[in-house]
Amino acid sequence: MAASRIKILVTGSEGQLGKTIADLAPHQHQYTFIFLSRTQLDITHAQQLEAVITKQQPDIIVNTAAYTAVDAAEDNRQQAFAINQQGPQLLAGVCKKHEIALIHISTDYVFDGQAQQPYKENDTINPQTVYGQSKRAGEEAILEARLSRFLIIRTSWLYGVHGHNFLKTMLRLGRERSHLNVVNDQQGIPTSVIDLTKAIFTIIPQLTPANSGVYHYSNSGRATWFDFAQFIFENCELKVSVEPVATLQFPTPAKRPEYSVLNCDKIRNTFGVKTPDWKKSAASILSIVNS
Questions:
Q1: What are the counts of helices (DSSP H) followed by strands (DSSP E) for the chain?
Q2: Of residues 67, 131, 215, 259, which has the active-site annotation?
Q3: What pTM value is reported for the model?
Q4: Does 131 qualify as catalytic in the annotation?
């Protein structure tokens, strides 16, 4: 008798990560997927969460639901904490009760951006924004639940085919304008949502109580937003003059990290996931977007 397939429930299925998991899901024949949008499952609603989980009985939940409007969070602290802290807390509680594994997506914004070398998982946490504080509170809620199997994945500069992201914004602006100013004093790693999705698929069958914990995932290399923009325009042969400028010339309600490069040795060594060079992955996404 064949073993039953692992049942994966994905929250926040209308976001860029949720939609990308759905795109790649048909190729994952060892898994059964349930995709639920916020209207189908509000992770901040305890009774609805319990009812859905009791009905669906997943083996693992991948939580991609999040409040990600970094600037808006400064004026909407209550909403940001409801989705990024209370939601994960309730999810962790229901996972504990029903013995379900949990994979939760977090962010580089839990750090203060003042490092001089890539951030490791156990480096000092010091979020500088409401968004970062709410995401850290979500991490803490999951850690305090002491689930037998869980993963918190911090990622950075996420972009892909779906949703609003830097790559798609630059493509639009590059077709509308001949000159752009782009910040050149923030350093990080553009990360393909497709690569993150593939990493999650690789991790799921390997997740055990022994290797549960906090991990970092991004592509390899490093760049500034200026570097990323230049690469996009060159790859797409868009004739745009790009001028590197300082963050101070683009004041925003939420402070951006000056440095958010993540050290991904732990996730590579533990699960054997691939972290391709960011330029190769960006070229791949651009070929899809432009096809």
A1: 10, 12
A2: 131
A3: 0.96
A4: yes
